[in-house]
Structure formats: C-alpha cells, structure tokens
Amino acid sequence: MQIKKLTVKSLYELMDFEWEFDKSVNILAGINGTYKTTLLSIIQQITRHENVSYPVASVEAEYTDGIKLVFTRRVSDVQTLLANRETNRVVVEMIEKEHPDWLANDEMHKVQLNIVSYREEKDGKPLDKQTYESIIKIDFVSTFDVASDRDKESVLNANLRKLQEQYAYYLSDLAKQVSDKVQESGNVTKEQVDIINKNRNEFIAIVNETFKETGKTLSENESSLSFVKDNSQRIQLYNLSAGEKQLLIILLTALLERRQEYILIMDEPEISMHIDMQYTLIDNLLKLNPNAQIIVSTHSPAIFGSGWGDKVVYSECLLKKKG
C-alpha cells in the first residue's frame, strides 16, 4: 500500500498543507525552517497510527486501494460534550466511568479536554483498525548520530545492531528456502540458488561498489556483517565512518523489506555521506526494492542528480498561511 495524498489542517494554527505523492519517488526540498522534518514526522506518525505530536487540527492520509485514515484533534469542555452526548458518546462514557467528579462539579464547563481520534475507511466505509495496521508497511530511517539517553549508544550504532540481528534472520530464511528446494526435488540447481539469493547478491554488489574507493569489501560468508580492507584487515561495522554507517543502514533497510510494498521515509540522508554515495542512493534503493515508495527530504542536489529532478517538490510552495 502506498500513500497518495496527505492533508494537514492548521499546522501550528497558521498553515494548511496538501501533498500529492508519486507512487515511486518523492523528494522534499526547501530552505531551513519550512517544516520539512515536521512534515515527514507527521507522515510517519499517522501512517503508523500514532498520536500526531505536532499542533494540528487534523491530518488526512489517502492511500491506494481506497483506504483513508483521518486524525483529528480538538479541545472541548465537559459541558459542551454532554450537551452533544450522542456525537461524543465514547468520550462521555469515559467521563462517566472514570471522572464522575467532573459531572458533579457545577464548574464542569471549565474542565477542558484535548480529544484525539482516528477514523479508518476503505471505499468510504469504516475499516477495522487491526486490518489497517496489518496492511500498512513503513520504514523511517534516521541518520542523525546522537547518543542515546539510556545507554549512551549512538543512534547509528543502535540501528546497525538491530539491523545486524535482522540480517542474520534474513540469511537463515534464505538458507531455509534452499533446504526446502532440496527436500522438494532431492537437489537444487545453481540457477535456483542464484534466484533465491538474487537480492542479497545485489546488496553485496552495491555495497562493494560504493565502498571500493576505501578498499573495503563485505565478508560474504558470515551471518554477521563485517568488512575486510585490502583483503586482510577486518573492520567491524561500528568502526566505519558516520557516512558509511548511514549508507549501510539505508541499504540494509531496503534489503530487509524483501521487495514488498513499503513506504520508506528518510530525513536528510545526505548528512555525513560522500557526494558519490548521495548521487546513486535512490537508484540503489530501487534496485533493492523496486516496490518501495520513497519519501525523502534533502538539502543536497546530488540526491536527485541522477535523473530524479522531476520528483522534487518544494515545501515552501506546498505550505500556505491560513487566511
């Protein structure tokens, strides 16, 4: 499932926002202070069915397959809610159960509630929340390398550690597919093995081509990812440069999507990344997952320099002041 259109009402009580998406590549550009990161975060939050953390009146996401998700936020006092009991039935029942003291208070009109709600639809009819959450697939890649408050592990290292674990499971699944072929027919051909390992081999080829100027190549026959420099010195992932870590995280994320329909969001992936890595980034992502819908914000022309200039939209043109 892909996102077709996003509508944000009263962002910071100043602006409305509307964005129609390309089914494949979407590049958000613009000067600082035009809410690029805010907009990507809102997309991530509503797509994951989370509470939108920014001050908005509503956010509406339209997807393919006739699916729509609407997030609304409003402030109301208890007295107004009770006067419209049927319209606010769920909230009123919650108040009656959990806060009967509000109802007994003559000043209940002073009790203000921030009411947040989601509504899921398919072809204009209500859609079960669980069904919606089973359909949507989204990855959000953060490339800002800061220390974690909990254990002082950097964000990049934490992401690499998690992806390392997922990559090991991915390789186990590939091995199982080969084993299943053997059990089915008694043997397995090289062509069948190559088909099973095609995406992984593509990933290795992309990484090695990108890292070749530094003399690093991936160790191919291990479940844990590591590099060998000049065919001798072993280099662990955590010893890579920040730009190399960023690229590896992004490519691993695309690989582990297993060519399924995903919404892949990246906020300024070019930070610390060499310009050659930026230039081939989108092409390489679509090689690993041609079914991904890429949504990326950037300040770097190199990100769209390899023929993606027609996919650029400028945030200052999409955001309009109210009134």
List the helices and strands and how they pair.
Layout: E1 3-11, E2 15-20, E3 25-29, H1 36-47, E4 58-63, E5 67-77, H2 78-83, H3 89-98, H4 100-104, E6 112-122, E7 125-126, H5 129-135, E8 138-141, H6 155-185, H7 190-196, H8 198-211, E9 216-218, E10 226-229, E11 233-236, H9 242-256, E12 262-267, H10 275-288, E13 292-297, E14 312-314, H11 315-318, E15 319-321
Parallel strand pairs: 3-13, 3-14, 8-12, 12-13
Antiparallel strand pairs: 1-2, 1-4, 2-15, 4-5, 5-6, 6-7, 9-10, 10-11
Helix pairs in contact: 6-9, 8-9, 8-10, 9-10
Detailed description of the structure:
Helix 8 runs antiparallel to helix 9. The protein has 323 residues and is α/β, with parallel strands linked by helices. The protein has a domain at 1-137 and 307-323. The chain has a seven-stranded antiparallel sheet. It has a five-stranded parallel sheet with strand order 8-12-13-3-14, with helices on both faces. It contains eleven helices and 15 strands.
Class from helix and strand fractions: alpha/beta
Shape: globular
What distance separates the N and C termini? 35 Å
Mean pLDDT: 86
- Oligomer type: single chain
- As a percent range, the share of strand residues is 25-35%
- Main sheet overview: 7 strands, antiparallel
Got a strand count? 15
Low-confidence stretches: none
Q: Give the proportion of residues in helices.
A: 25-40%
Order of H and E elements: EEEHEEHHHEEHEHHHEEEHEHEEHE
Strand order, biggest sheet?
7-6-5-4-1-2-15
Note the total helix count: 11
Radius of gyration: 24 Å
